[in-house]
Design a protein that fits this description.
The chain contains five helices and no strands. By secondary structure, the protein is mainly alpha-helical.
Length: 137
């Protein structure tokens, strides 16, 4: 079993981050904008107060974690798109579960959570396919 190629994780993470940020833009500014605006306004949060640079940085951090996860599970699952999808689904399960805690706290409703979880899962899987395709040991 070889060592993880950190340079390829970074390159793949950058590519996955670009894809993830692009898809997040479509999801948040086109598909779910009205729902998220209503949710934020119901909690007296100004949508204009959201930090776009923070969100972009978090997407790149998630993308690096995504490609690292692929590299870590690759020896067991094999190289290729199936393993990239497994890495994407694994992170989607973790992040969606964490986001569900906000439902439990009453910040979001299940109706807010469900489309976000579904679209986030798609985003993570597509980003995984893009970024993990560049990973080689």
């Amino acid at each position: 079993m070889g060592k993880i190629n950190v340079g390829k994780v970074i390159v793949g993470g950058i590519v996955a981050g670009i894809v993830m940020n692009g898809l997040d833009y479509v999801i948040n500014e086109m598909l779910l904008k009205d729902m998220m605006t209503a949710t934020l306004q119901a909690r007296n949060i100004d949508p204009a107060a959201l930090s776009i640079p923070t969100m972009v940085a978090l997407d790149f951090a998630m993308a690096l974690l995504l490609v690292f996860t692929y590299a870590a599970i690759r020896p067991r699952f094999g190289a290729g798109p199936k393993t990239a999808i497994v890495a994407g689904l694994l992170l989607a399960l973790v992040t969606s579960t964490l986001a569900a805690y906000f439902v439990g706290m009453g910040f979001f409703t299940w109706n807010d959570w469900m489309p976000n979880a579904a679209l986030s899962t798609i985003n993570l899987c597509v980003s995984a396919l893009a970024g993990c395709a560049l990973y080689k040991e």
